[in-house]
DNA sequence: GAAGTCCAAGAAATCGATTTCGTCAAGGTC
DNA sequence: GACCTTGACGAAATCGATTTCTTGGACTTC
């Protein structure tokens, strides 16, 4: 089912068929003939061929570290909404936080001639050089990249961490701990820094390290970190937890100890999906995942459209909301 | 950066470059020259061109109804594991249960010359005709299709529903209700049918419709259905809930009524992610999402590899596990 | 009515990698 | 030494849609 067969059936040349299909000038008669032939043959243009010739593709790559984390799927949803409204399809790639898989997908993005890439980097040193040097637009999302020539959309993690901690102090808790993500992950550091700032202000003491735990952004890590905190000689009475998955684990550990919120204060980054009733008494810092995705897609589409202004970083607000 | 430039730099023809890159016979000397040139130019073959010529693509489409449902992301993970091990990449498409978006993605799959498609159909009448008539392999997953000439991988939903209900009766509950999904969705019907079978056996009565609610497979639907059941003059003391999202809503409604499990018996299809502590006392029918994805990918890869045996349906077991 | 303008539409080049076909030389056989 | 086999490798065709270049006819204009 090629354009040649359509042309033959319509009794015109392939150029005319292409023109009809792409909305260039043709006589009404030719148009009628071509449309009839295409209809009769159920013709679908071969995108591979058209892309090879036209060098553009209507595909956006979205590379995320963990497809099973609802935060990233909500983000993906945001990207998809914007992209499909603009006629682009979204290819989702899951790196499992593995820089090597990430590199593979970045290579694929180049080789597949994708129109652009939205990347939630596994590491702030992620190598997007290949994309950039091929003039392929890239937007970093959620986490920013070390290089300054790439657009980014992030949330104000430090303010969010501060606001989470402040809200716990304001509610009367006095020893507010922090469970954050891997040392190497920017969002984990910033959220922790926000907490540290608020905690220092309220307790006067800069010796907070007892109350700080680095975990892995996963359920089990959260559980274990909370168990450790509860086992301290002078345990905390509240905690800021830096993501949703760890919060699920932390809640579990709290429940084991008979300390369900709000008896123990808990403020969490990101919504706890599907855990609505377990969520009661928990303070949530709303991380606008979908909006992040939408903002990133908007930015990327502008770049694809030819916007060559200097790289910018969009920072969305993340504030404790309840 | 084309194969021509590599050839020029290496002082050989493009055929030789292609041969080196694809592992055909070449002299050691040519190989060395070509590899050096490719390295020096940071050459990445243009997949679009290679696909156009070779007519095969190393991309598998995975079309799912709800990317934010952990069941489907776990399934996607399974597909991805198998596919990437075999050198294929996975393109994830989200239909939002919308047959129209599904049709669009199916068309894209044809036009993009994807190697094959794994589809969790929004409707059992989903039109995969285009794929089939283009000889493009398709595997239905989770839900089967009306047409019999397409491979499918499903779970034994009826047995799962039966086992869920049986386990509640065995634990001493006597009025076991059922909250299932949309009437039009096969899995919802089958899970309900399993429940009905067990309930009929135990209660002797075939008049179970009071205790049956059709909802929408979403959190709010589950909450509302459970609220309705609890408001009955003669309310149930247990329920089978046909998916994870509705269970989250149902749990919420139960909590509002002061009836947390195991006071009220609850058996759920599929794991409740991130709700570990809320999950206590709940019976879970393990729906092997990842394994479904793996099985579907295995089947699809066989078909892509040229297996032309008659269409088959693989049924995985889903049994109450605790 | 000659010259100029305009437009539809066909022929052919093009995108970049793969693959077929043919050539040439080295090595083997009788 | 004539003839055949084998292997490396270059020239050119190929995949299918798009786009440039060209042609020819209709229509203006003075």
Seen as an oligomer or otherwise, the chain set is homodimer
> Helical stretch count of chain A?
12
Classify the secondary structure makeup of chain A into a structural class: alpha/beta
The CATH architecture of the largest domain in chain A can be given as 3-Layer(aba) Sandwich
CATH topological fold name of the largest domain in chain A:
Rossmann fold
Task: Please give a quick description of this structure.
The structure is a homodimer of 322-residue chains. Chain A has helices at residues 3-10, 14-22, 28-41, 47-54, 70-85, 99-111, 129-133, 157-170, 186-203, 219-230, 244-256, 289-304; strands spanning 59-64, 89-94, 116-119, 138-141, 151-155, 176-180, 212-214, 238-241, 265-269, 282-285, 313-316. By secondary structure, chain A is of the alpha/beta class.
Question: What descriptors fit this protein?
Answer:
Rossmann fold, 322 residues, 12 helices, homodimer, 6-stranded parallel beta sheet, 5-stranded parallel beta sheet, elongated, alpha/beta, DNA-binding, 3 domains
Explain what you see.
With 322 residues, chain A is α/β, with parallel strands linked by helices. Chain A folds into three domains: 3-45, no CATH class; 57-149 and 289-316, Rossmann fold; 157-285, Rossmann fold (3-Layer(aba) Sandwich), CATH 3.40.50. The first copy, chain A, contains twelve helices and eleven strands. The first copy, chain A, has a six-stranded parallel β-sheet with strand order 2-1-3-4-5-11, sandwiched between helices. In chain A, 52% of the residues are buried. The model of chain A has no long low-confidence stretch (mean pLDDT 86). At the A-B interface, helix 4, helix 5, strand 2, helix 6 and helix 11 of A face helix 4, helix 5, strand 2, helix 6 and helix 11 of B. Chain A binds a DNA duplex (30 and 30 nucleotides) through residues 2-4, 12-19, 21-22, 25-27, 30, 45-55. Chains A, B: This is LacI family transcriptional regulator. Chains A, B: It comes from Paractinoplanes aksuensis. Chains A, B: InterPro entries: HTH_LacI, Lambda_DNA-bd_dom_sf, Peripla_BP/Lac1_sug-bd_dom, Peripla_BP_I.
